[in-house]
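Fold this sequence, please.
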Amino acid sequence: MIFEDIKTELLRLLILVITLLILRKISVLSVAKLGRKTGINEARIHLIIRYITVNFILIGILVAAFIFGTEFKDLALIFSSVFAVIGIALFAIWSILSNITSGIIMFFSFPYKVGDKIQIHDKDFPIEAIIEDIRAFQLHLRLDNGDLVTYPNNLILQKPVTLLKKDAIDDGHDAL
């Protein structure tokens, strides 16, 4: 029977899955707690949780390959080929990766939140607006005239920003 031949590998795989699920749960709870403690909106928290889940799945696939007897040189050949193709493809879209990475950095260390009024000191296009949403690739900024500006995450980390008013969305608007 097939299962008797790979009983040890299946047991190791089960231990791997349980371990990764526990580590994922701890990571998700930690990120959610940190996000809520610092006032980050739920959409951004869920985005970071998705990144964590994908990383644990990739780690699980890698370790499972070793459990079932794949040798390092075989995996190295596969991964180097895949990463070469991905690297060439991603070079063309480096700005997207830059914005995603910036979004992750902003999740943990961005001092401004949704509702804050900020001023971006850009000599070509200075912006004074309220942060309406912080997404994976860009910020949604609402200008005083009502226009919506999308500003790339990687640029917001490169430009000086001044906080003009905290939670400006709540100012002047009474809840019904």
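The helical segments are 2-5, 7-37, 42-67, 72-92, 94-109, 153-156. The chain has two domains: 2-92, 111-165.
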